[in-house]
Amino acid sequence: TIVVIHSVDPLIPESIFALLPVVAVVWPDIPGQESGNGLAYILYGTSSPSGKLPFTIAKQRSDYGTAVKDGNDQYPEGLFIDYRHFDKNSIVPRYEFGFGLSHTTFAYSNLSISNLSTAAPSKGLAPGGLKALYNIAATVSATITNNGTVEGKEVAQLCISLPSSAPESPPKQLRGFSKLNLNGKATVDVRREDLSFWDVGSRSWVLRKGNFEVAVGARPRDERPIGTVES
């Protein structure tokens, strides 16, 4: 049995897996007019899926650690929502954020990280904040190789961990991604904002000294070669 789920939000599928001999799950979100053809292409191998989950699918609702509330919400969870909450509390989900299979597999190699830029930050404002936040601080790249015989696309995801000198922060944070067809090099520019955190006391973005752990993989929990960039 192959289960097809049309949903824009995560749901708990444990009861489905308990009742049926499920061998696969296809999650196409909201169906459009080509939904039938698209599903047939995927199920019969004409096309290889390459989508990634934009949220975590838990094994039980309480694993999310938060819920919709009436009235004022003080957001006590802070930055620790979805995959950041699961990583902080070492909770094993059914399917993690960024997860997605295809009819082939990909290998990651040759992780390359440039030195942190020493150029003076830009001055002034830009739409969305300070211009300096959008300065390129470093460039990260990795070689992606299709291991199989089926044509497919891969979404390489860049995650960064802040140094110990920064306040409590999520273990990993998605900071960029690149979608590749077949083999190639995924290259992602890292902005100053990607390495910074919002300091409530000074009401400003702060980039602390230390080693930033950098990883490029198929999803945040993917175990791929890890490098560092030093500030």
TrEMBL record:
Protein keywords: Carbohydrate metabolism, Cellulose degradation, Glycosidase, Hydrolase, Polysaccharide degradation, Secreted, Signal
One GO cellular component this record assigns the protein to is: extracellular region
A molecular function (GO) held by this record is: beta-glucosidase activity
What reaction does this enzyme carry out catalytically? Hydrolysis of terminal, non-reducing beta-D-glucosyl residues with release of beta-D-glucose
SMART domains reported in the protein's UniProt record: Fn3_like
Q: Which family does it belong to?
A: Belongs to the glycosyl hydrolase 3 family.
The protein's name = beta-glucosidase
